[in-house]
Design brief:
The chain is of the alpha/beta class. Helices cover 42% and strands 13% of the residues. The strands form five sheets. Strands 1-22-19-18-17-16-15-2 form an eight-stranded parallel β-sheet. An eight-stranded parallel β-sheet has the order 4-12-11-10-9-7-6-5, sandwiched between helices. Helix 13 links the parallel strand 6 and strand 7. Helix 12 crosses helix 13, helix 16 runs parallel beside helix 17 and helix 22 runs parallel beside helix 24.
């Protein structure tokens, strides 16, 4: 929209945005404000000094009102500090921006004509031979503060807390209460326990698979069908040693993993998981009956699969993936359904080396809970692959937490890869940043040269002792190499210590790429903490980038992304909305490529499109916690809630445009009204935290001279 059209309200676009920013943040607690800053000076493209001065002045005043972030040229907004802008230029700019006089646009245009078009706003250069500019004032300036808030502010609304219609299972509360009372114990390793039985091919085939065409030795999951006695004995021994939770023998219980043995048919996968759950449930029931004061529970083990969504299997093609997000979700959905059919008490998403795989599992879980109207406790367990403190796909453990926190797991922890002594620092970090229960089940030390584990139960007991002495955990157990003696020693250790108390964690917007971005605004200096959202990977923000995408030159596009991060972008905006571009294909390929470059993917992504299916395509490729840009009420409340729920399943924060069924909000009153309505829906009906709601009250173009 434009100013100078003869309609007085168009001259107030910047003022309305700035005033609306202050009011929206007052009436929508915790929300954030964003916008496309370049829109404000679109009419001055080609005149660098004026255009960039508008950006700087706008950010100065908008941040003073509470603006948190914006899509910007990060390098320029850092260079063009407000107090360094040429004072004469700034005066003309602010007359237009703040609508302080009726002839401000004409005066600005006259002054702009005297400037060299490529000079900087901090070092203004006159065109050759131009005399000093002296405008002849046509009107007197206004003598009131155009940014002043309304005199009679309405009270801040009271919002109802979100009430989830999905009912938790009966055991949910029982397990939660036990976590408060004592440190719980989860079992040891199923895989290395099975190895001790020295089973051979006939044991894995049994009657059902006697004529199967593919070798089956090593497919431990099918032993629940062919040697249930072995699996039942292992479960019972761990329960006898003091385990409160045992895991189903379903680490590879998806069609994706079972394809290695040509057992990917849904019938086979369903049978494996259901039978595994039934065996474990039967064992737990027997031990609970013996001692009802110590109930035992079954964790449905959901492994990472043998494919990774964040890492290409091809060195030559880093954007390639040999499995899709939707395929992983579908595989996990079958596993979840069959585990619940067998009676599991908990869903355990474990050994997460790629957070995007875990997000696919959590997406499947949330969709399943919503469809069935039931909610089980969910445990999430990541894997730190070495002393870098990162997952295989590169995330730090706090970034990992930010990526999965949306699923509200009852407990989160780490397992596998490391022994206890190497794991403790990362557990301590999780213990400080997570507002849920924390657990660990490390390996029995590190493997020896033959791949075995030499650490005894007593030795492991001493290695895990600091976990309980320092109050870091609510549950302990063992992974690779841990057997009955390890769990027995751990159970003996924990009975003398109190469980970790869940800390009070400050509510804030928490994003992530490979690293966490925990946004803490400085209310006294919002410009200082302003988040620069890099605009140059937006086809509307960079002709060079658009050409690279249209030409299929993704390496060039990647270099543009890298340069933005190097120049100070805190978040990277990615937009493919152009008639010459297949949005889904381009978004998928480019985000996959960005993930392969750690110097870029360390920052969170803003997945940006006016087409929601393109937004979804981007979310399905990003392991971090993203921002979606954008959703709105333009198509009505039902479509708005549907899009919002999908974003929530992915764990994304959302930008909400100030649009409704009537159109785009241009005035102060409409901006506030639409944003407040959207906020109420998101926090009361969808369950968003206010801190994950980002409003874009529409930065509209000023100073067109029309």
């Amino acid at each position: 929209l434009t100013v100078g059209t003869g309609l007085a309200e168009h001259n107030n676009y910047a003022v309305d945005f700035i005033r609306a920013t202050r009011e929206i943040k007052r009436v929508c607690p915790g929300c954030k404000i964003s916008g496309g800053v370049s829109n404000i000076a679109f009419s001055f493209r080609g005149n660098e000094a004026v255009r960039r001065a508008f950006h700087s002045a706008f950010l100065h005043h908008a941040c003073n009102a509470g603006m948190d972030m914006g899509i910007v040229n990060a390098a320029q907004v850092k260079a063009d500090a407000y107090d360094k802008i040429d004072k004469e230029l700034l005066g003309y700019v602010e007359d237009v921006l703040l609508n302080t006089r009726e002839d401000s646009t004409e005066r600005m245009l006259e002054f702009a004509e005297t400037l060299e078009p490529k000079c900087k706003p901090t070092a203004v250069v006159r065109k050759g031979g131009a005399p000093a500019f002296t405008p002849s004032p046509k009107v007197n300036p206004r003598d009131h503060d155009t940014l002043a808030p309304p005199e009679n502010l309405a009270p801040v609304p009271v919002y109802k807390p979100f009430s989830c219609a999905i009912e938790p299972t009966a055991n949910y509360g029982v397990i939660q209460k036990l976590f408060e009372e004592r440190i719980l114990v989860i079992d040891g390793a199923m895989g290395t326990s099975i190895q001790k039985y020295k089973l051979d091919e006939p044991d894995f085939r049994g009657e059902r698979y006697a004529n199967h065409t593919h070798p089956l030795k090593g497919n431990n999951d099918i032993l629940v069908i062919t040697r249930p006695d072995v699996i039942s004995e292992i479960h019972s021994k761990f329960l006898e040693c003091g385990a409160d939770f045992i895991e189903t023998n379903t680490f590879s219980g998806t069609s994706i993993a079972q394809a290695d043995y040509e057992l990917q048919a849904e019938e086979e996968v369903y049978l494996i998981n259901q039978k595994a759950a039934e065996i474990a449930k039967e064992c737990c029931a027997k031990f609970t009956a013996k001692d009802p004061s110590k109930p035992r529970f079954v964790c449905g083990a959901i492994g990472p699969t043998n494919r990774t969504l964040s890492v290409s299997p091809s060195v030559e093609n880093p954007a390639f993936r040999n499995v899709t997000f939707d395929e992983v979700v579908a595989a996990y959905t079958v596993q979840i359904d069959s585990l619940l059919a067998g009676g599991v008490d908990v869903l355990l998403v474990e050994t997460i080396f790629d957070t995007l795989n875990a997000k696919a599992a959590l997406y499947a879980i949330e969709q399943y809970f919503a469809e069935k109207g039931i909610r089980l406790p969910v445990f999430v367990s990541g894997t730190i692959v070495d002393n870098s403190g990162r997952t295989l796909s590169g995330q730090t453990n706090e970034a990992f937490w930010n990526s999965v926190e949306h699923a509200k797991p009852l407990a989160i922890g780490l397992n596998c890869a490391l022994g206890a002594s190497d794991m403790i620092d990362y557990i301590e970090n999780l213990s400080k940043c997570c507002d849920c229960y924390v657990f660990a089940y490390p390996n029995a030390g590190l493997p020896n040269c033959m791949g075995g584990y030499d650490q005894t139960g007593k030795e492991m007991k001493e290695e895990v002792r600091p976990f309980v002495e320092r109050g870091l955990v609510n549950m302990l157990g063992g992974c690779c190499g841990t057997w009955y003696d390890h769990i027995e020693e751990i159970a003996d250790l924990v009975k003398d210590f109190k469980p970790r108390k869940i800390p009070v964690i400050e509510q804030k917007m928490r994003l992530s790429g490979l690293e966490p971005l925990n946004y803490t605004p400085d209310e006294k200096n919002m410009r200082k903490t302003f988040l620069n959202v890099g605009e140059r990977c937006n086809v509307a923000g960079s002709m060079m980038y658009k050409k690279a995408i249209v030409d299929g030159n993704y390496e060039k596009a990647l270099s543009i992304a890298l340069k933005q991060v190097q120049q100070g972008a805190d978040v990277l905006d990615i937009n493919m909305d152009d008639g010459l571009i297949d949005g889904v294909s381009a978004m998928t390929k480019f985000v996959n490529l960005l993930i392969s470059e750690p110097d870029v993917s360390r920052v969170p992504f803003m997945i940006d499109s006016s087409k929601f299916h393109v937004v979804e395509a981007g979310l399905k490729c990003a392991q971090g916690k993203c921002i979606v840009n954008s959703i709105s009420l333009k198509e009505g409340e039902e479509a708005f809630k549907h899009h919002a729920r999908i974003c929530k399943y992915h764990g994304a924060s959302v930008v909400v445009m100030a649009f409704d069924e009537e159109g785009q909000a241009a005035t102060f009153e409409d901006k506030v009204r639409i944003c407040q309505r959207a906020y109420r829906i998101l926090v009361e009906e969808v369950g968003f935290s206010g801190h994950d709601v980002i409003f874009d009250p529409n930065i509209l173009t000023v100073g067109t001279g029309l």
